[in-house]
């Protein structure tokens, strides 16, 4: 760390002053005469408030407990007992005498901490702890060092470090890393050219973004879904969180930042197809590589069954996520939606061997090969990407699919459809394919591919993309349409 971080002194001062008496608690933060604003205004605290609805004092205690849990053993022992956080008692419930550590008087807490120094370290897996301090050394030196480290963590960590991992492993679990935007949808007969107009009387504002759409598609198919994204702290950002909660998507890994939420103007053509004009406000609302390495995100990535990455995040974020997944003992299914195009996709080639499936249109996948000739065939395109190390390629066009992978090679014809293509079709396909891959231990057959392809036709809509994502019974109905076939 180079130089002091802004805000650490204020947070440390609050923690030092609140260690007296009964320690840190929501009631103490509400009633103390100490100026606690440096703690209540921490980004990690605001993150907990926004995503859980807790009051600022309750969120502050929760965030500080989570951050304290990431300290080294000795520092954790010191701050837990001195601030009376109750972390050790919670971790080792049923161990006799641990509740005594959190006495109402800080002097008594210090005495017990010194007396049980070796025992507490041993509980936490530290068999050779440092020499026990005296109460005086603890009060005058050790506490200050440990509280300073806690303050640095609270100020310098990703806001996602303050979130706890949670999942329902009775269902397939999926983690999506992408964006959550508000779509401004215009239904037009044609796209305007320079100095012309394309009037419309159909306009809709609806949740969107490839990450959000994929999360909704996965949740509607019955999977347990985390979305890792950034949203703005404005009315649209809060509407997106409410929408995701209503759809059953977990939002504890969504980063809320000061700034206006991204929006995308979506021009839908009546006969299918679309054109987008995105304003992503990346200067204020974005994921950073630090967010992907946050403890809550790491814990979810280590336990999830499948990970979906879109290129809406920075290349550095995608690279960091793939690198983290590649180092895990338990590797999830990894699916990449390579859209929007990256200016320099070659930076990700070293990670291609960690990708189980690339899913996109010919144009999206061709953008991954800047040196390839523009008239490359679909077979050449798929083979080129497989040669770079990916394990499977799905090319989806106009509700049909071509797949080339280690396990299966097939062409699935499109289902009867009123439109040529719609935004979100590939997210619907990808979510359906993931469900089948997880159900079949990755050994899918043409019937599974046909079902996933049917999800695209089931997603046809002139309205909000996320709202058009189908449930399983809707996909089943499309599969049962007369004339559906494979080729």
UniProtKB/TrEMBL annotation:
Belongs to the carbohydrate kinase PfkB family. This is Ribokinase. The keyword Transferase applies. Keywords: Kinase, Transferase. It comes from Lentzea cavernae. Residues 173-471 form the Carbohydrate kinase PfkB domain. InterPro entries: Carboh/pur_kinase_PfkB_CS (IPR002173), PfkB_dom (IPR011611), Ribo/fructo_kinase (IPR002139), Ribokinase-like (IPR029056).
